[in-house]
Every structure is written in C-alpha cells, then in structure tokens.
Design goal:
Rossmann-like_a/b/a_fold; 205 residues; Rossmann fold; DUF218; alpha/beta; 2 domains; YdcF family protein; 38% helix; signal; globular
Amino acid sequence: MVWEKWAMRGVCGVLAAAGFVCAAPQTGNAEPSIPPAVRDLQRVITPDLPATYGADTAVVILGYGLTPEGTLRTELVRRLRAGLVQAMFAPWSPVIVTGGNPRAGLSEADAMADWLVSAGLDPARILREPHAESTVANARNTAVLMAEHELADAVLVTSSDHIDRARAAFLDAGVTIAGELTPDRTPWPALPLRIDQFGPGLPPA
C-alpha cells in the first residue's frame, strides 16, 4: 500500500539521521529485507495496544526462574514490562504474580511484586501466588486465588514460546482466558517505563 511505503521511507529517514542504513529492496518477487532496528522502530511508532478490562479480570504474570542470588533474569523482566503495560491499560484490574521456586529466600512472585512496585504499581493491586513450581501449578494456584477474590477471567502474560502451554494449563484449571500478551507484542519494549509517568491512574478509594 502507498501509505506503508511512505511509512517505511519515514522510518528509514529517521534511522539514516541516526546513522543506520535501511536495506535496499530485493529484485523479483522477494520481500525487501527489513533490519531489526527498523522493525523495532515500527513497533514503537505503531504498536498494537493491549485491550482494556474491568475489575473482575486479573492480569496474570507468570514467573520465570530467578538467579541463584534471587535476582530477576532478563526474560522475567520482559514479562513484567509486558504485564505493567497491560496493567496501565486495565487500571481497575488486579495483577496476579505467580511463581515459587525460591532463591536466596525470595520466591519468583515476591521478586516480581517488588519489581512492579518499584515501577510505580500500587501494591494494593498485586496478589501474590508464591508457591507454584510449574506451569500447571501456576494455573491451579491462580485459579484458587481468583476464586477467593471473585475474579471472572484472566489476561495471561508470559513469553511467546510459553503462551501455548500456559493457555492449556489455565484452561485445564478452569480459568476463563480473556486475553493474552507476550513481550514481543508489547508497545515500547525497551523504553524507560513507570506507571506513574504513563497510563491511567487508579480509581478513587
């Protein structure tokens, strides 16, 4: 489409000003090669925004193993950033962090909750499930927690190579899935992000 060609030219112009070079179109029927930097910039400029949900929908962020020192691995930070973006677009939704497997006395859920609070999320929105040691346990324990808080459904947040297994486990546990989000589909994946700098606020008490 014409607008796509002009959009690509605009993206390439920005990159050229920054010292990057766009690949030249290929001859024949082959698609032009798009450098990763261009794809990342396109995602920042025209992201797929997460959906909005109400107070009876939980944003469920699945854990990922901590380091032996109890710190967050890069992939877990990516999941948390995706979950934080979803929380911004669903300001009434509670956020469930699920994961046990403690390291240095800290569970995945507790480490995840600490990260979210440091990023500006209200601690009152966070529900912790710190016992699960597998995806199946994530789902079963979260289902119990959701029932206790009378939550109707969930948005699953995990890695793209884990979402199919997570979806199956949560469906088997009886959880209704309202949506899914993975880090590769999240807007602004590498920009500084705090919920008190961007996104809607919490409802009045």
